[in-house]
Amino acid sequence: MATQRTSFAKLQRDQAKKAKADAKRARRQDRGSGAGEAGEADESVIDLSGESAAPVSASELLRLVEALHQRFESGAVSYEEFEETKADLLSRLPID
Fold first, then answer.
1. Which residue intervals of 34-78 are DSSP H helices?
2. I want to staple 82 with a disulfide (CB 3.0 to 4.6 A). Which of 3, 38, 72, 96 is the partner?
3. Is 34 left (phi over 0), alpha (psi -120 to 50) or beta?
4. Which helix (H) or strand (E) is 21 found in, with range?
5. How far apart, in whole angstroms, are the C-alpha atoms of residue 12 and residue 7?
6. How far apart are CA 16 and CA 19, in angstroms?
7. pLDDT tens-digit series, residues 16-38
8. Cα separations in angstroms, 53 against 45, 46, 47, 56, 70
9. What pLDDT, on the 0 to 100 scale, is given for residue 34?
């Protein structure tokens, strides 16, 4: 008999929790090192758990993707986290 897989919702919650913890850790490190522009990009990271009250506009999502790219290029984000977060942000873009 096959074992039951982890549900998609649980995987999303775990990824969101990891992303939130990583963003918090990055903000702490930037605050401790007194980073200027990189700290501003970290403040733009949203709660990826999907529990935010207000929906985010398409322009705001694209700005967040741009900030994520900058954080990845500076080495503040691992490749795996970058890909997960980018996929989540792009999946939230409204398609008309």
1. 37-43, 58-73
2. 72
3. left
4. helix 8-33
5. 9
6. 5
7. 888 888 888 888 887 776 544 44
8. 15, 12, 10, 9, 26
9. 59
Segments making up each domain of the chain, as ranges: 9-44+55-91
The closest of 49, 57, 61 to 90, measured between CA atoms, is: 61
Cα torsion 76, 48, 86, 44: sign: negative
Q: Could you give the CA distance from residue 14 to residue 52 in angstroms, rounded to a whole number?
A: 16
Q: List C-alpha distances in Å: 78 to 5, 24, 75, 85.
A: 26, 14, 7, 11
